UniProtKB/TrEMBL annotation:
The lineage of its organism: Bacteria, Bacillati, Actinomycetota, Actinomycetes, Kitasatosporales. One of its GO terms (molecular function) is hydrolase activity. This is Alkaline phosphatase family protein. Pfam families: Phosphodiest. It comes from the Bacteria. InterPro entries: Alkaline_phosphatase_core_sf, Phosphodiest/P_Trfase.
Amino acid sequence: MALPTWDHPEPLAVDSAPVPEYGAGSLADLLPTLAAGMAVPGMTAAIPELTEADRNCVFLIDGLGWEQLKAHPDEAPFMTSLLASSRGGTGRPITAGYPATTATSLASVGTGLPPGAHGLPGYTARNPETGELMNQLRWNPWTSPRVWQPYPTVFQLAHEAGVHTAQVSSPTFQNTPLTKIALSGGTFHGRLSGEERMDLAAEQLAAGDRSLVYTYYAEVDGKGHRFGVDSDPWRGQLMYVDRLVQRLAEQLPPRTALYVTADHGMIDIPFDEQHRIDFDEDWELRAGVALLGGEGRARHVYAVPGAEVDVLTCWREVLGEQFWVASRDEAIAAGWFGPQIDERVYARIGDVVAAARDDVLIIATEREPKESAMVGNHGSMTPVEQLVPLLQVRS
C-alpha cells in the first residue's frame, strides 16, 4: 500500500530572508562613515559610495520608506528629484536593520552599531534580569539606560574629537531614555515646528568648521500607523515634509552634505482574519508561550522553560508559509541582528523569532489593543519595510 502524499508547502527557509546590509549599507553604517570623513578616531567609512564633507546633516523622516517615496512623486517632487543622488549617486537605497522599527533603528543610527550589539532588538523585548517585557520606545518598565545600552554614541565620540555636534528635534524627546542612549552628545535643541527645526539645523551646521547635525520628523509615521500609507492624511504629511527637506537644502552652509533617510518603511494590512492573526484567540500559537514580544510583523516569542522546541515547531507549522520562523540561534546564525551578538543581548531575543514575508500580522487584541488597531505596520525584512532612502544634497 502506497504512503499518502501531503500537499503541504515547506516552511520558508530561514536563510531565504533578505538580511539587512550590515557593514556596507545599513543605517548602522551611516554615522560612522560620516564621522570617519571628519577624522573622528575609531570610525570606519563603511558605506563606500559616500564621499567626505566637513559638515554633515542627517534628516531622519520617521516611516518614509524607499518604496513609499518612489510611489508618490506628485506629493514629494523635491525628494523625487533627489532619488538618483541616493547612496552616493548610485540611486540605490540602504537597509534599516532587523527589526525595521523605530527604537531599534534610532539606536543603530546613533551608536553606529547593529541591533545585536546595541541591544534594542525590537519594539518590545524581554529583560532577562526581570523576566518582564520592556517597551524600548517608551522605556517601560524602567531600567537603567546605560546598563541596557552601554556604548557611546557617534555624536559623543565626534564631540570629544572637536566636531560641533547637535540634535534638533521636538522638545518632547530631549530627556527620554532612548535619546540618552542613542542620540546624545553635543547639544540638544528642541523646536516644535518643522520649519524651526530646518532653520536651526542650518544654523548649527554653520556653527563649526566641522559639524555633525541630526534632525528628525515623526508625523509621516504617525499618520501611516493611524490611517495607512494609502490615505490622504499620510499623503498630506509627505507633501509637508518634502517642503521641509527643500527648505533645509536651500540653507546649507558651504562644504555641507545633507542626507535624508528614514528608520523604516510601512505597509497597510487589511482588517480581516486572513491578514490579522490574533494571538490572544489562537490556542495553538499560545501553547507554551510565556511572553509575546516584538510587534505584529516582527515577533519575539519567549517560551515557557522546556517548551522552546515545541513552540518553534508549532509556530513554524502554523505560520511557516507566511513568516520566516527561526529559533533564536538560527536567527543569529543567519545574521538577522547583525554579525555578532553581545552576551547581554542574547536572551533579549525571542526563543522563536517570526518575521513576516506576506501581508499579514500577528496581532494581540487583549495584550496590545492599540497596536492591533493600527492600519500601517512595519518591522520585517521585506523591501517595503526594510529599504530606506539615503538622498543627498551637497553645497
